[in-house]
Write a structure and sequence with these properties.
Helices cover 46% and strands 14% of the residues. The chain is α/β, with parallel strands linked by helices. It has a seven-stranded parallel sheet with strand order 3-2-1-4-5-6-7, sandwiched between helices. β4, α4 and β5 form a beta-alpha-beta unit. α1 crosses α8, α3 packs parallel to α4 and α4 packs parallel to α6. The structure holds coenzyme A and NADP nicotinamide-adenine-dinucleotide phosphate.
Length: 260
C-alpha cells in the first residue's frame, strides 16, 4: 500500500461492513478503512477467506472480523449486520462490493445464469441497504452507503449482459437512496473502477476473454486506487457528496470513444 493522504485516524470510531471484503477490490477497501482507524467486518460466502482477511488486518494493528454471509439471502445479510453491531456497537459504513460475473454470449446464457448474477449484484445490494438502513441512520458520524459498480453497465457490455443490467440497477438504486436517505444524513454513492490488476474480475473479463483493457493512463488500476476513492467517500472530505458515480478507471471509458 502506498502512503495514504488520509490521516490514519480519520475513520476512528466508525464501523464498516464490506461485502466480498476477503478478496480483490473489497479486500483493498477493507484494509484501507482499517488503516484509517475503522473497525471492519468482511463478509462473504467462504469462511476461510473472510477469516484470513480479518487475520491479515488484525496482524497489522487493525480491528477486523470475518462473517460468513451469502448476499442473496436477506436473513444472512441481516445476521451479518447484527453481528457487526453487536461486536462493534453500531454500523456507520456499508460497502456493497460482492459480485458475480462471467463472460457468456446472451444466446448461450441460461435462465439460471442470468438470475444468479442479478441475485448477487442487484438483490444482494438491496439486501444490504435494507439491513443497514436503521444503523446508518443512527450513525453519529453520518452513514455512508457505497456500491461498487462499473461504467460498462451504462455503455452496454457484450458478453456480460447480466452483470451490466445488474450494475445499472445498482446505480439507479443508489441514486434513489441518495434522495430518500439524504434527510437521514446518509450519503449514498457508487465507485466505478476500471480494470484492476490481479483481480478475479480482470482475469475473467479481460485476460481469459482476450479483451484489451485500453486505459489511457497506461496501466491497470490497483486495489489501492479504488480503496483511496472509498476512503474519500467515507471521510468527512466528502460530506456534501451524494448520489454520484465516482469513476476511477484511468480514463478507460473516455478511451473507448477514441475507437479502440
Ligand atoms: N458460462 C456460462 N454459464 C455459467 C458460467 C459460465 N462461465 N458460470 C456459471 N454459469 C451458470 C451455471 O451453469 C448455472 O446455470 P445453470 O443452472 O443453468 O447451469 C448458473 O450460472 C449458476 O452457476 P453456479 O455455479 O451454480 O452459481 P454459484 O452460485 O455457485 O456461483 C457464480 C456464482 C457463477 C457467479 C460464480 O462465478 C462465483 O461465485 N463468482 C464470484 C466471483 C466473481 O464472479 N468475481 C468476479 C467479479 S467481477
Ligand atoms: P472478486 O475478488 O471475485 O470479488 C468478489 C467477492 O464477492 C469475493 O470476495 C466473493 O467471496 C464475494 N462474493 C461473491 N458472491 C457472493 C455472494 N453471493 N455473497 C457474498 N459474497 C459473495 O472480484 P473483484 O474483481 O475484486 O470484484 C469486486 C467488485 O468490483 C465487484 O463488484 C466487481 O463487479 C467490481 N469491479 C471489478 C473490476 C475489476 O477490474 N476487477 C472492475 C469494475 C468493477 P466469496 O467467494 O467468499 O463469496
Amino acid at each position: 500500500m502506498t502512503n495514504s493522504p488520509f490521516a490514519p485516524d480519520c475513520l476512528k470510531g466508525r464501523t464498516a461492513l464490506v461485502t466480498g471484503g476477503g478478496s480483490g477490490i473489497g479486500f483493498a477497501i477493507a484494509q484501507a478503512l482499517a488503516g484509517a482507524g475503522a473497525q471492519v467486518v468482511v463478509a462473504s460466502r467462504k469462511a476461510d477467506r473472510v477469516a484470513e482477511a480479518a487475520n491479515v488486518i488484525n496482524a497489522i494493528g487493525g480491528r477486523a472480523m470475518g462473517v460468513v454471509a451469502d448476499v442473496r439471502e436477506p436473513e444472512a445479510v441481516q445476521a451479518a449486520v447484527a453481528n457487526a453491531v453487536d461486536t462493534f456497537g453500531g454500523l456507520d459504513i456499508l460497502v456493497a462490493n460482492a459480485a458475480g460475473n462471467f463472460v457468456v454470449p446472451f444466446a448461450d446464457m441460461s435462465f439460471n445464469a442470468w438470475r444468479t448474477v442479478i441475485d448477487i449484484d442487484l438483490h444482494g445490494t438491496f439486501h444490504c441497504a435494507k439491513a443497514a438502513y436503521p444503523y446508518l441512520k443512527a450513525s453519529s458520524y453520518g452513514g455512508r452507503f457505497i456500491a461498487i459498480t462499473t461504467m460498462r453497465a451504462l455503455e452496454g457490455w457484450p458478453g456480460c449482459a447480466h452483470a451490466a443490467a445488474a450494475k445499472a440497477g445498482v446505480m439507479s438504486l443508489i441514486r434513489s437512496l441518495a434522495v430518500e436517505w439524504g434527510p437521514d444524513g446518509i450519503l449514498c454513492n457508487t465507485i466505478a473502477p476500471g480494470p484492476i490488476g490481479g483481480t478475479e474480475g480482470v482475469k475473467r473479463l479481460y485476460e481469459e476473454a482476450g479483451q484489451s483493457t485500453g486505459v489511457p493512463l497506461g496501466r491497470l488500476g490497483r486495489g489501492e486506487d479504488i480503496a483511496q476513492a472509498a476512503l474519500y467517500l467515507c471521510s468527512d472530505a466528502s460530506r456534501f457528496v451524494t448520489g454520484t458515480d465516482l469513476v476511477v478507471d484511468g480514463g478507460r471509458q473516455r478511451g473507448q470513444r477514441g475507437g479502440e
